[in-house]
Specification:
The chain is α/β, with parallel strands linked by helices. It has 2 domains: 123 residues, no CATH class; 214 residues, no CATH class. The chain contains 13 helices and 7 strands. The strands form 2 sheets. Strands 5-4-3-6-7 form a 5-stranded mixed beta sheet, with helices on both faces. A hairpin with a 5-residue loop joins strand 4 and strand 5. Helix 4 packs parallel to helix 5 and helix 11 packs across helix 12. The longest helix is centred in the N-terminal third of the chain and has 20 residues. The protein starts with a helix and ends with a helix. The relative contact order is 0.12.
Length: 364
């Protein structure tokens, strides 16, 4: 975790400033304090325990002050997530901190140092080499508000989430864009390709059905099967249905993707078409055109049908993004969007490092 390392480095820096001598240097002044290694200390926050390695000296006076620069609110156990500590940037006019989740002011120099370090990690994340070992790729976008000179505007964050055959997973990439056009999605997909995900082992790409994304996939990964999300499709269908038909249409659509086989799903669609062709011809026609990509999940083992027929795997990550960013109202600038998204995704990737998705592991 970036904040853990930054706070531990700050603890060591303060200790070094206190002793005023280089490591292993010995000066004979009476009363001089010396380094004395580190100790572990836990800080209780709302989202769990943050364990830090605190620098110490031989004399106790050094430890009596502010420990490692950790805000007092954290030590009281009522702090926000350290991954969301820095939620804003420095005001260009006064150099003040405009948003610190802990509620306690920190110096402009401290914020600037943390920002530079975080920007370095964001850049490293975007440039990290990817092994061509991903079997399932989930793609979707989330909209966030940014404060711009002309007022508040929305930016789209395009996100790629990968799952290996053994069930291990990772958030692979994100790209800030003005929308979900074909060009924007090609930018993200080409980035994945350049970094090493050429798609030789890709079995399926799951998307929300965005036309621009579908077109981009044909450019970058044309040979990989494409699954459209049934949740998004159901939402689109029900938007065009009269209230009195809502329950029956919904039930008959569910019968399609819950069928015991692809053939049974095709048969369920035929029933749906006979019932609703006259009432909703355009909607029925569109569903028939999209059906091959909506039923792509049937070619995989049965236990994978449910996780592969929607983008819920990545949508659940967006729930966390929205929860963390909602108190910020809007981001100060586009760079702050990248920082907080990286912090959230980096925490997810760290949590998943030794955990696999059971259904994918069983199907491997």
């Amino acid at each position: 975790m970036y904040w853990k390392r930054a706070l531990e480095e700050e603890s060591a820096r303060r200790r070094d400033a206190h002793v005023q001598c280089d490591p292993y240097e010995r000066k004979g002044e009476e009363g001089r304090d010396y380094r004395n290694g580190f100790y572990q200390r836990d800080f209780v926050t709302r989202l769990g325990v943050l364990r830090l390695k605190i620098a110490r000296t031989r004399q106790k006076e050094f430890l009596a002050g502010d420990v490692a620069g950790v805000p007092a609110a954290w030590r009281r156990g009522d702090a926000a997530d350290p991954g969301g500590l820095l939620t804003g940037d420095l005001d260009s006019a006064g150099g003040r901190v405009v948003a610190v989740v802990s509620g306690e002011a920190v110096s402009a120099q401290t914020v600037s140092k943390l920002t530079r370090g975080l920007d370095h990690l964001v850049k490293a994340f975007h440039q990290a080499r990817l092994q061509d070992e991903w079997a399932y790729l989930f793609l979707d976008g989330v909209s966030l508000r940014v404060r711009r000179p002309g007022g508040r505007k929305r930016v789209q964050m395009l996100v790629a989430y990968g799952v290996r055959r053994d069930g291990s997973r990772q958030l692979l990439a994100f790209l800030r864009s003005q929308g979900e056009s074909q060009a924007a999605w090609e930018g993200l997909l080409q980035d994945l390709y350049r970094r090493g995900l050429v798609g030789e082992k890709l079995l399926l790409v799951v998307t929300d059905g965005c036309p621009g994304l579908a077109a981009a996939l044909q450019t970058v990964y044309p040979r990989v099967p494409h699954q459209r999300c049934w949740v998004h499709k159901m939402r689109n269908i029900l938007e065009h249905v009269r209230k009195r038909d809502y329950a029956q249409v919904k039930g008959e659509v569910q019968a399609i993707y819950r069928a015991e086989s692809r053939g049974a799903a095709q048969a369920a669609f035929e029933i749906f078409r006979r019932h609703w062709q006259s009432a909703y011809p355009a909607m029925v026609k569109k569903l028939g055109e999209d059906l091959p990509e909506l039923l792509a999940f049937y070619r995989f083992p049965r236990q994978l049908w449910k996780p592969l027929r929607t983008t819920n795997a990545i949508e659940r990550r967006f729930v966390e993004v929205r929860r963390r960013t909602r108190p910020m109202v809007c981001f100060v600038n586009v760079e702050s969007v990248d920082r907080i998204i990286f912090s959230i995704f980096n925490r997810f990737n760290a949590e998943w490092k030794n955990r696999t998705l059971r259904l994918f592991t069983q199907a491997a």
